[in-house]
Structure formats: C-alpha cells, structure tokens
Design goal:
Elements (H helix, E strand, L loop, with lengths): L5 H10 L16 E5 L2 E4 L4 E4 L2 H4 L8 H11 L13 H13 L4 E7 L2 H18 L9 E5 L8 H5 L4 H4 L9 E4 L16 H16 L3 E6 L3 E2 L5 E2 L4 H11 L3 E5 L23 E4 L11 E6 H5 L21 H16 L2 H20 L4 E7 L2 E9 L4 E2 L6 H11 L2 E2 L6 E4 L7 H19 L2
Parallel strand pairs: 3-16, 5-6, 5-7, 7-10, 10-11
Antiparallel strand pairs: 1-2, 2-3, 4-12, 8-9, 11-12, 13-14, 14-15, 14-17
Helix pairs in contact: 3-11, 4-11, 8-9, 12-14, 13-14
C-alpha cells in the first residue's frame, strides 16, 4: 500500500473534505488519528482531552473494550441487514431494551441514522397520525416549536428549528411553524422574577395553544436544555407544564432528546427529571457511545395503531433509511447500555457533576464571563466585553474560538457555540480530567479577555 505523507493528508483535508459548520476558506486541519479513553491523539502523537465528547456523543470514552468487542463480535455475524421488511436479532434486542428504559407509553421504535433524521421521522409520523386515526383531523398540519430552536439539518428538522444564522437561507424550502419565546431560565424578561419565570412562559405557551391547537399536529421541544441554541437552560417545571398543556389542547409532544439523553443531565433521559412521557421521543448521539451512526424515534401505542391496516389501505409509514437499525450500530448501542449497568455510570455522576459545578462557579467569577450555567454534565459560559452591562464582544473578534484554540494548545479540545464556551466531556471523565478541562478553559478566557 502506498504510504501517504502527513502533508498530503493535511492538504487533502483542507482542499477535498468539506467540513460541516466550518468556513473552509479559514479552516486549519486538525486531524485525529486515534483515541484512548477520554483523550484524542493527532497525527503527531499529541494528546487532547475530549472536552466536548466528540460533538456530545461519546459517553464511556474512546476504544472502550466492551464496545469494541461487541462490534467485532457482530462483524463475525453480519455487518448490515436492511430494516425494510427484514430484521436482525441485535437490532430487535436493542428495540426491546430501549422500550424497557424509556418513559412509560413509548412502546415502538423506528430506527434511522442521526438526530436530524430522528426528528424528521417524528414530524412525519405526527402528520400522518392525525390523518389516519379513527377520527381524522387533517387540518392538524402545523408545528409548534421554541424560539431559537435547533433540531437538525434535514428540511423537516430545519423547519421546526429557528436559528437564523443556520436556517434563514433555506426559508423558501420550509413548512410553517408557530413559535413561542425561548424559556430561558437565566435571562428572564424584564420585570419577571426568577420565581415566576416558568409560569410566565407557560402562560405564553397556553395563549398560542388556545389560539392554534386545532391546526397544530405537534410541539417539538428539547427537554431541559436547548443545546445547539447556546445551551439555554429551561426553568424547573417548564417541561412538566408543556406536557400538561399539550395534553389539554390535544397536541402531540415530540421530545428531542438527541443531545440530552443517555446520562447527560444526570438521568438516562432528561424527561425523567419531571416525570414526563412524550408521544414521540428522538434519540441519537450517545446511543452507540459515540461509535456509529444510529438514531431512534420512539412512539406510543396510539400512534403505532394509527398506521396499522391492510396494504391496500395505504396506512404504511412510507419512510425508511438504508442503514436504519444497522446491526453494528445496534451492537455498539447494546454494549453502551450494558456499560451503564456494569460500571454504574449514572451512580458515579453526582460527584462529577458537583466537581464540574465548582469549576464553572470559579470561571463565572472572571470579569468577562456572564451567564455561566450547568445541567448535569453540560456546562456553558458566555463571554462579554462588559458582563455587568451584558454587552457582548463584536462577533468578528471570535473570542470564544480563540479560547478554544488556546485550550487546544494546552491539550484540551473544545468547540464553541458563538461566544459560548461549552464543556460537555464524556461521562467516563475523571475528577482530575474535569479539573484539567476547566483549567484550560479558564486560562484561555483569561488569555483572550485580559489584553
């Protein structure tokens, strides 16, 4: 085999590979050749703590022997079986495992590829459900979502998204979506106390539901934390109130748990914090431990039943993905769930969450840091030119990006969200590694704000 030089790889990465959410005119290659535990290793052998779980999906660390063995064992059986009219034992067992773990009522699993497709599936299921239930309501064809929402990059998930920086270009292709204001726990409207902020946003939601419920198929929400929107934390009780109001006004609830499931908030699913059972729940990212693309949309029996009938009735859900339910991904997911039990992952989290909170509180005291916040193993802090006045830095200065570049030079890989510094390490992270990640972020903030 021809030996490829390091320089060739860097040049091809810069000129041939089109990276997502990346301005290629400014891109400087960062090529990871291998990884171990919570560390990434580049072409030159330099190690970096994975401070953002390889975009929020790695759970138990890289090259975990349990997951590696499960994938190898599955390879000895079969690598891929279509999920269209066929199945595989590993995929079937994963479906049963997810149903057993999920909030009550979610009894059926539709597999797809990633978070965007999981949401796309849920949106289409909701529309078809209202047309095929025993008392059809075809006028229910609009969706309700939160302001500044992000649910993925396929057209349906972009339609229920609401970040202009990402989505405005594609508006001519999108379907109608109603919106309610972002329920931001840490930035309440003027004149609204912290104690009343949840009630304030739920009252606004009820006004919209009362006016539009007859044409609303579903409300889509990320439980507890709007992740790509900038790690916006919702007030306690908001999700529970959303579930009560959607039931009251006969609107389906789609819980997008793509970023917040599998321990990120301290529970297996974020919905568990407020004892909420949605009608549809979307999973991806951490389901395979960050190993392979696999997503799932879980549905209630009521929704499932609306799709049952003879082929001639045309009630089939005509939607599918070539690699949906892929056995290799399912094997990785089964092993990931096994590790939660074997290593008591959730039971280990309180100490890690507390340590992360200590470090976030320390960073929050820096003069140019505002809105430092945390939910479980998710933390974020925003940079301001004047934190007291809430005046941000000019976006062209890319201060958060420069913080991440500083951290990388000191052995920690971080990726910003605008002017937000995000800390979301693998759940397998140690207390000492949490300190190292937070220290790199703190020193990076000092370096780019104190000059």
């Amino acid at each position: 085999m021809e030996k490829i030089s390091r320089q060739d790889l860097l040049e091809w990465d810069r000129t041939l590979v089109w990276h997502g959410f990346t301005q290629m005119a400014e891109y400087e290659p960062f090529v990871i050749e291998r990884a171990e535990g919570c560390e990434l290793i580049d072409l030159d052998g330099r190690r970096y703590l994975d401070g953002v779980s390889s975009l929020w999906c790695n759970i138990h660390g890289h090259r975990h022997p349990r997951i590696d063995a499960a994938v190898r064992e599955q390879l000895d059986r079969v690598a891929h079986v279509t999920n269209l009219g066929a199945s595989n034992p590993t995929t079937i067992r994963l479906a049963k495992r997810l149903v057993d773990l999920a909030p009550d009522g979610l009894q059926h699993v539709f597999f797809s590829d990633d978070g965007s497709t999981a949401v796309e599936v849920a949106v289409k299921m909701a529309l078809q459900y209202w047309r095929q239930r025993p008392d059809p309501q075809p006028e229910k064809s609009c969706y309700l979502a939160l302001g500044h929402a992000y649910h993925g990059d396929t057209l349906g998930s972009v339609s229920v998204g609401g970040i202009d920086r990402f989505h405005a270009m594609f508006r001519p292709l999108l379907f109608e979506t109603c919106r309610v204001p972002v329920p931001d726990r840490d930035r309440p409207p003027e004149g609204v106390s912290a104690e009343n902020v949840c009630r304030y946003y739920l009252d606004q939601l009820e006004e919209v539901l009362a006016q539009h419920h007859a044409r609303l198929a579903a409300m889509v929400v990320e439980p507890l934390v709007q992740a790509a929107a900038g790690m916006i934390m919702h007030p306690d009780g908001y999700l529970r109130g959303v579930r009560a109001l959607t039931r009251k006004y006969n609107v389906l609830l789609i819980a997008d748990e793509v970023a917040v499931a599998f321990g990120r908030t301290g529970r297996m699913f974020a919905c568990e914090h407020e004892q909420v059972s949605p009608d549809l729940m979307c999973l991806a990212k951490g389901m395979t431990g960050g190993y392979l693309p696999l997503a799932a949309t879980l549905a209630t029996g009521e929704i499932w039943n609306a799709f049952l009938g003879t082929a001639a009735e045309g009630k089939t859900f005509y939607h599918g993905h070539t690699y949906g339910g892929n056995p290799l991904g399912a094997a990785a997911a089964m092993a990931t769930l096994d590790i939660f039990d074997e290593e008591r992952t959730l039971e280990q989290l309180p100490a890690k969450i507390a340590r992360l909170a200590e470090r976030v509180e320390r960073i929050a005291r820096l003069p140019h840091v505002g809105r430092a916040r945390q939910c479980g193993m998710i933390a974020a802090m925003e940079l301001f030119e004047d934190a007291v006045a809430g005046r941000p830095y000019p976006s062209a200065e890319r201060r958060a990006q420069r913080v991440c570049e500083h951290a990388r030079r000191h052995g920690v890989w971080l990726r910003p969200l605008g002017d937000e510094i995000v800390l979301m390490p693998p759940l397998a992270i140690s207390l000492e590694q949490i300190d190292r990640i937070a220290e790199a972020a703190e020193q990076g903030i000092r370096a780019v704000t104190e000059t």
